[in-house]
């Protein structure tokens, strides 16, 4: 009888050991699987706030994080930035810069131009931050000429660095010096992956947004740029809103632009 009791106790201990060991193994595998889940983050930057342009209110009502790029020298710059902050959206400066093509008035009277001195450029960027003091970064409005000019762009990035901001390259030229200069100066940086709009066709915007999502799923991160006003507005807002469930189900996490940047 004593022997049978010992054998029973032995098997009970063996069962308990195997049970606990199995649970621990399963827990480790679950943690490992969780750690292996790929990060697929998509940031959307919406340019041209500051004019109360078409789609402004609808865009701010979108139930996802995104980044609001505000023109700093426009009539409604402060008002639009305040509304964006109230909607808990990230705010950056959409800095007007000289382009290689197009009309100068598209940049505006207050923009960065190659003819300006280093001091003039820095004073203007400082003024933009004075108007939008809570901006956490900057991207370029137009600006192909400036993005190719190391001196002018370097002046801009110097101020961004002083403000502890980041820079988003809208990639309006394939010869941009943005990444190189940002790395040299220690400014956190990210470049646009896809332009969403410039069209009145909702389906085209959806197609472009799916393209950005595909990049995020493949590379882990992507950044798409859209607009309020005539370049996008309600068309872009409706396309984004319609695709939120589809993209989230596919594994996309919507984030602000600043969340993509690794210093």
Low-confidence stretches: 1-6, 9-35
Write the CATH architecture name of the largest domain. Alpha-Beta Barrel
Largest sheet: 9 strands, parallel
Total number of strands: 9
CATH topology of the largest domain: TIM Barrel
Number of domains: 2
Q: Name the helicity range.
A: 40-55%
CATH domain class name of the largest domain = Alpha Beta
Q: Please tell me what the overall shape is.
A: globular
Assembly status: single chain
- The helix/strand class is alpha/beta
What is the H level of CATH, i.e. the homologous superfamily of the largest domain? Glycoside hydrolase/deacetylase
The residue-averaged pLDDT reads 89
Order of helix and strand elements from N to C terminus? HEHEHEHEHHEHEEHEHE
State which percent range the strand residues make up: 15-25%
Span between termini = 71 Å
Alpha carbon gyration radius? 25 Å
Show the helix and strand layout.
Layout: H1 2-36, E1 41-49, H2 56-60, E2 67-70, H3 77-86, E3 90-97, H4 118-131, E4 137-142, H5 144-147, H6 150-162, E5 166-169, H7 178-185, E6 189-191, E7 194-195, H8 202-219, E8 221-227, H9 233-249, E9 253-255
Helix pairs in contact: 4-6, 6-7, 8-9
Offer a few descriptive terms.
alpha/beta, TIM Barrel, 2 domains, 9-stranded parallel sheet, 9 strands
């Amino acid at each position: 009888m004593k022997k049978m009791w010992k054998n029973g106790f032995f098997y009970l201990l063996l069962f308990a050991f195997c049970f606990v060991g199995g649970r621990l193994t399963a827990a480790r595998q679950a943690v490992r699987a969780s750690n292996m889940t790929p990060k697929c983050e998509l940031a959307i930057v919406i340019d041209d706030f500051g004019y109360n342009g078409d789609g402004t209110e609808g865009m701010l009502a979108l139930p996802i994080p995104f980044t609001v790029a505000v023109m700093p020298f426009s009539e409604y710059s402060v008002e639009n930035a305040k509304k964006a902050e109230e909607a808990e959206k990230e705010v950056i400066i959409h800095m007007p810069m000289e382009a290689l093509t197009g009309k100068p008035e598209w940049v505006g009277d207050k923009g960065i131009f190659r003819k300006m001195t280093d001091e003039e450029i820095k004073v203007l960027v400082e003024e933009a931050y004075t108007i939008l003091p809570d901006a956490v970064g900057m991207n370029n409005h137009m600006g192909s000429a400036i993005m190719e000019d190391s001196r002018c762009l370097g002046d801009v990035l110097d101020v961004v660095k002083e403000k502890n901001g980041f820079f988003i390259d809208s990639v309006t030229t394939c010869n941009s010096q943005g990444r190189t200069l940002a790395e040299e100066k220690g400014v956190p940086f990210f470049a646009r992956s896809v332009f969403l709009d410039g069209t009145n066709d909702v389906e085209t915007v959806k197609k472009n947004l799916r393209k950005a999502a595909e990049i995020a799923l493949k590379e882990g991160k992507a950044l798409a740029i859209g607009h309020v006003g005539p370049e996008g507005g309600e068309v872009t807002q409706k396309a984004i809103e319609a695709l939120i469930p589809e993209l989230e189900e596919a594994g996309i996490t919507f984030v602000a632009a600043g969340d993509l940047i690794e210093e």
